[in-house]
């Protein structure tokens, strides 16, 4: 198709009932493209743990909009810097707590999804 990448997003989901969260469909999209293009995720990223989960499920990057806007509206440039620092600190802590030494070493084995839990009950 000539695309350079894919952004998994559900813009408009707040107006539509029953759409899945982007994190819940991320892995399926990553598998579908089989590494042909990078997959990014947009939506639902609020904490460093969300960044960690997205990377573990195959995202090459995350897009962070709403937290940045919250920081900007609360404290301007300082607020944006604070939000970015918080996300970085939380990601670093989560990475360490999961026994990894860098974001490049985050793998699928570091997270359990709802689908994993359901499969384990069968």
Q: How would you describe this protein?
A:
The protein is mainly α. The chain is 50% helix and 8% strand. The chain has helices spanning 22-33, 48-56, 66-97, 114-121, and strands spanning 6-8, 39-42, 61-63. A three-stranded parallel β-sheet has the order 1-2-3, covered by helices on one side. One of its GO terms (molecular function) is (S)-2-hydroxy-acid oxidase activity. Keywords: Oxidoreductase, Peroxisome.
Please provide the ordered H/E string of secondary-structure elements. Answer: EHEHEHH
What's the gyration radius in Å? Answer: 16 Å
Number of helices: 4
**What is the rounded distance between the termini?**
39 Å
Globular, elongated, flat, extended or rod-shaped: what is the shape?
globular
Q: Mean of the pLDDT scores? A: 92
| Main beta-sheet annotation | 3 strands, parallel
Strand content: 5-15%
Query: How many runs of DSSP E, i.e. beta strands?
Result: 3
Which residues sit in consecutive blocks of at least 5 with pLDDT less than 50?
none
Strand order of the largest sheet: 1-2-3
**Share in helix:** 40-55%
Secondary structure class reads mainly alpha
